[in-house]
């Protein structure tokens, strides 16, 4: 039986179809969220054959209301996904488009403690995307651009508007854009790790979410935690994978003749 997990994020929507028996990923799809997230969800799900569907992400209630699907929190989804991909993991840092989550896991892979920044875009993918646009650098290249910088500068404000003002002021004083970009990345990492340290400081760390694709952020985190971090080949898939794993758990609990058809 195939089950489906869908992560409705602020910047992108991800779908994972999982074989509920082997826990093997059968399908992984991704689209931009745009201003019509429900339409994008339906587009992603079109043509997929699965039983149970579980939604997560900031827009999970939208899909839950439309399709009567079950939903779980992003905290649980990322804990399940990270624990499946990396059984040795003891903590998860997820930096997504709109929020940052720091999660510690117990010996059984369950959520022990967590913190979440969901009040503003400070220190998130949206912050980096906004700053990359200010530098006229594609977001996909912003991390490599920052790695060309020399340490020494600092950005004190994590408010997007004030950080841009600081960056503009540093440019006006003749500092190299690469050096300023590196300082911006440092500020994101500093904020994220302060959250992580409040929930966990020991054990293997899984870095998930779209920002985990940023090579500069990865390197700065590894330098700060003084150990190699665990990053999936598709780090923004972890939440959708966790939702699919939860769906598989529900399939196991339903007697076959009573399993709901949620194709």
Would you kindly provide a written description of the structure presented here, covering whatever features stand out?
It is a single chain. With 263 residues, the protein is an alpha/beta fold. Helix content is 42%, strand content 19%. The chain contains 9 helices and 9 strands. It has helices at residues 37-45, 60-67, 74-85, 125-134, 139-147, 160-172, 177-199, 215-225, 238-253, and strands at residues 2-8, 12-19, 25-32, 53-56, 70-71, 91-95, 100-105, 111-117, 205-208. The strands form 2 sheets. The chain has a 5-stranded mixed β-sheet with strand order 3-2-1-4-5. It has a 4-stranded mixed β-sheet with strand order 8-7-6-9, sandwiched between helices. A hairpin with a 5-residue loop joins strand 7 and strand 8. Helix 7 crosses helix 8. The radius of gyration is 19 Å and the shape is globular.
Annotation keywords:
5-stranded mixed sheet, alpha/beta, disordered C terminus, 42% helix, 4-stranded mixed sheet, 263 residues
Structural topology:
Elements: E1 2-8, E2 12-19, E3 25-32, H1 37-45, E4 53-56, H2 60-67, E5 70-71, H3 74-85, E6 91-95, E7 100-105, E8 111-117, H4 125-134, H5 139-147, H6 160-172, H7 177-199, E9 205-208, H8 215-225, H9 238-253
Parallel strand pairs: 1-4, 4-5, 6-9
Antiparallel strand pairs: 1-2, 2-3, 6-7, 7-8
